[in-house]
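Reviewer 2 asked us to include a model.

Predict the structure of this chain.
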Amino acid sequence: MSTQTILYIILAGIIALLLALFHYKYKAKGASRKNALFALLRFISIFSVLLLLINPKFNQVTVYNQKPNLVLVVDNSNSIAHLNQENNVSKIVEDLKNNQSLNNKFTIDVFSFGNTLHTLDTLSFKEKQTNLDKVFKELTQIYKNTVSPTIIISDGNQTYGNDYGYTAKKYNQPIYPIVVGDTTQYSDLKLKQLNVNKYAFLKNKFPVEAILVYNGEENINTKFVVTSGKNTIFSKNISFNKIENSKILNFTLPANNVGVKSYKATLIPTESEKNTTNNSKNFAVEVVDEKTKVAIVSSVLHPDLGMLKKSIEANEQRKVVYLKPQEAISQLNDLQLVIVCNPNNSFKNLFEALKLNNKNKFVIAGPKTDFNFLNTVSDYYQHDIISQTEDYQAKLNANYNSFIVDDLDFESFPPLISNFGEPSFSVPFESILYKKIKSINTEEPLLATFEINKRREAILFGENLWKWRSQSFINNKSFNQFDNFIGKLVQYLASNKRKNRLDVDYESFYQGSSNIIISAQFFNKNYEFDANENLNIIVTDRINKTSKTIPFILKNNNYQVDLSDLAASDYTFTVKATSENISKSGNFKILEYNIEQQFLNANISKLKTIANQSNGTSYHFNDYKSIINDLLNDERYKPIQKSSKNIVPLIDWKYLLVLIALSLAIEWFMRKYNGLI
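Predicted model (structure tokens):
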């Protein structure tokens, strides 16, 4: 409280006292016990009112004890069920969560995890992936700057993400793993990894790489076979021993027929082998009979050229060649798309040939572009001719509907550099991305497409796309999302197919452990995206002859349905619009593969390592009750006394209002009783 406020309070006390004495001493002409009591009540009333007007502020200090956190993290993946540990895990969780002594000492937070971390609701043990790396990253954010010993109930087997041993080092909390599953080491043959391209071309052979691993002491002989249906199309005898316990096989298989071809690779198990699930893997290859050839034409070197080639060729159906303007003219008949980078006057003959052959093109116009030339050869758009450059960030147009565009968080991407100025179009066009200058959103196109005379074109006003691909990798730990975006753009530009009112985006086959998302777009008669339509998908299992109908949900500028719960099989589907007689059919395969069933033992060594490096202790599930006493007796986990200081104004103190009302009421009733009113 400041000195000035104290002086005001003293002054208020003097004023209240003088007014009370004036009324009950000076005006009453005498002193009596009743007048003294009346003066006191009047002083209290006036002084309290003046205090409210001054409204002094007081420091309110609250002291409390904060218990340390006890974080209980439970593995909810399918590997727990595969190891027959569901009952053990459920019992451990209930015993720890409901232990009264632990609850008295700790604030217990319970989570479950598979691919991500969740607050525990129920345990189903149906999660298809285990990502302990992500679990420790998220726990690090939640329990930063706290005392939070962490119990991990898991088999320690990870199927996705970076090595969690390194991530656990950055988690500055003691870790107490409770190891569930068999820790006895058995002899085991394992098909650890199978590498194969997604596509193959008709009449060619496609490569396959198989990584085979053996855990055991004895010398064994076995065979590796690849079958298609009932036919064996590749086999090789394999021998292992304690020292030579892994092999890499490289071989090729023929692609004789168009379509999705399913195969099964198997490492023949020994008679004594306990886990044979990890000896086999199903895989598929889509055989196609044509390849999209894309030319990148430029007269200057730039990092974007290499980035575009990598992104486009991420899909094996596409091939990219670098050409000079004159070289491209002679190869136009072999090209499905021409990407023109920073055109200048040397591209004049190429633009004339593209127009004459009605070829699709993608123009990338950056600071090195001659806009005088581009404005001359372009019949459909113009750009202001200004030498000044500007950095433009991208903002996604959620209403773009020529094809499905996923939001890659474009606003987090570095800006592209381009000439300052506004482009203008003389034909209808759609912007995929708008220009954004710092925090100002504009309606100017950064990346736009249009269709004219059965030809498709795109124009990008900027360069340094390579930075976008790098940022996408930082955001997602993968190039796939950005490469898919470029792939969809190239697929749209390389085709001249007439737009359908119902478009469905799906893969020919899916791995059994992956998310299966099918997307669709529905357009009205003017080919504008219709967000009010109800779409349903009817999925039929070709083998079991069963069908189910699932509705799509609207997400941004497309409809989506999640089919991840479908079992491995061969499916046909039909997507139907409910208000109109429009439908589209297709088929896909789900390959049987459960990565969570590839493990025979718990990874006790990794769990012990992260316990030791964090000053924790590992426990076996048969001896998990020891952890209760260890946590209760650990001197590191004591309540912390904390205080909170709040500045409270007097006007918030409701009792003062009660005091004012009470003093005035008593004074009035006493005066009334004594006949003074």
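The mean pLDDT is 86. The longest strand covers residues 440-452. We have added this to the supplementary material.
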